[in-house]
Backbone:
């Protein structure tokens, strides 16, 4: 009796249910059924791991159950449905059982014995009765397998240890727990070649296929926590945010020696991260010198970036002495108060909450953990000039925001704007690039709603590409 395709698909769906049972038991998801006269008389889901049994393949289990039901080791008149092309063992078992027909879903190019690697059913000497029907719901069957292995790779990656290099230090994760306005757990990465095995903290939130991805790069001496007030609005817009802590800062590993830090190294790590995550339609959200590092990445791969929002970013050639002095103090004085400095950067009117003080100090709290601060004046010197062409291109496309620090400490917004105009005189004509309130003052860094305004400004619907 020939059955039409819909009947085969019906039973294959039931076999897929068995495959999903296997997946839920952390077994490779293969499911099988034995059907006789339109009735399911045997079921099996792959379970060699849980049964400690190398023969506990879905097909074998389904054959066993069917034979019990029939009270006969011959399964004549039966059809076996299986989501994956059977192996040699199962194909052999089916021949022994004399099933009429085997119907499988996805091909198995490495171990398949019904046509892929070999075809046990094609030898007339050993097979007189079993027909093979291939590719029923093949895509669905293959997708169940692919999803399972993808999930398993992810889980494995999450569990992968990131051993601490002997030339690096690691902060205690608990020191960063339960911070106000900060609930995002990082993905840990040590797989980027430039990291040389260091563990990097990267917050990655929002959908992978979002219309915009915000690459948030903090400056010294901060970490990703600097973006805590902006993330909720960016995520609420359905966008993706990527917030790395640069090595030596925040929760990422810290090289012991300040000479490990170089501008080129930080740029390379960020570039490798952008490539590893295959980020596209990226807006660089750069804070302080993190903005300069991010601009170098964008200059290397401009096709991945659509623009930049630069907060308190300075053209270093025009950097005033007072700002330079600030970083030199941080480099020289072991007692330099990071939390107080970050309070200045964020221009807190109120004294910082104790938990915020903890957030800023946690990265540098222990002796020897200040190599990044020591290195930073030199890192600034090593940074190449601004990618003027790219910046002007973004400005013309209205894809550039330049925003002063909220505070006049250590330098005023007017000094900052003058520095930018010295570096890029054409910006004089680019009114839209300056983030200003209707009253003409430069927008405070933490003011409410600014991230929503950024979403409106940079979102694809408002932008002609
Ligand atoms: Zn098998």
Residues:
């Amino acid at each position: 009796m020939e059955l039409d395709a819909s009947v085969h698909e019906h039973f294959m769906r039931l076999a897929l249910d068995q495959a999903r049972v296997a997946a839920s038991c952390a077994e490779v998801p293969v499911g099988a059924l034995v059907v006789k006269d339109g009735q399911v008389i045997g079921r099996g889901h792959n379970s060699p791991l849980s049964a400690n049994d190398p023969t506990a393949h879905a097909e074998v289990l389904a054959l066993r159950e069917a034979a019990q039901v029939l009270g006969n080791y011959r399964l004549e008149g039966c059809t076996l449905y299986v989501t994956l092309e059977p192996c040699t063992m199962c194909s052999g078992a089916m021949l022994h059982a004399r099933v009429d027909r085997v119907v499988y879903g996805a091909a198995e190019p490495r171990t398949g014995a019904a046509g892929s690697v070999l075809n046990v059913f094609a030898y007339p000497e050993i097979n007189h009765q079993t027909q093979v029907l291939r590719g029923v719901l093949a895509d669905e069957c293959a997708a169940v397998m692919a999803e399972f292995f993808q999930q398993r790779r992810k889980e494995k990656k999450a569990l992968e240890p990131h051993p601490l290099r002997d030339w690096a230090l690691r902060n205690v994760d608990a020191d960063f727990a339960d911070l106000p306005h900060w609930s995002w757990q990082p993905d840990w990465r040590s797989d980027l070649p430039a990291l040389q095995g260091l563990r990097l903290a990267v917050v990655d939130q929002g959908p992978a296929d979002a219309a915009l991805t915000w690459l948030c790069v903090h400056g010294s001496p901060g970490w990703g926590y600097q973006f805590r007030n902006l993330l909720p609005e960016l995520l609420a817009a359905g966008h993706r945010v990527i917030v790395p802590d640069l090595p030596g800062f925040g929760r990422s590993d810290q090289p012991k020696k300040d000479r490990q830090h170089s501008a080129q190294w930080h740029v390379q790590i960020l570039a490798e991260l952008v490539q590893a995550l295959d980020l596209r339609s990226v807006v660089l959200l750069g804070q302080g010198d993190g903005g300069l590092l991010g601009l170098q990445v964008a200059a290397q791969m401009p096709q991945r970036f659509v623009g930049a929002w630069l907060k308190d970013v300075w053209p270093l050639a025009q950097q005033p002495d007072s700002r330079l002095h600030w970083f030199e103090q941080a480099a020289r004085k072991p007692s330099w108060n990071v939390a107080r400095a970050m309070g200045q950067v964020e221009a807190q009117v109120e004294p910082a909450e104790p938990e915020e003080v903890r957030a800023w100090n946690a990265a540098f709290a222990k002796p020897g953990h200040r190599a990044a601060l020591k290195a930073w004046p030199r890192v600034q010197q090593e940074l190449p000039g601004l990618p003027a062409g790219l910046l002007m291109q973004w400005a013309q496309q209205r894809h550039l925001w330049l925003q002063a620090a909220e505070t006049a400490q250590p330098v005023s917004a007017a000094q900052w704007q003058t520095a930018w105009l010295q570096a890029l005189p054409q910006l004089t004509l680019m009114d839209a690039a300056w983030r200003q309130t209707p009253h003409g003052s430069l927008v405070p860094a933490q003011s409410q709603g600014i991230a929503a305004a950024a979403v409106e400004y940079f979102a694809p619907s408002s932008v002609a590409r």
User: Anything to note?
Assistant: Residues 57, 59, 86-87, 89-90 surround zinc ion (CB under 6 Å).
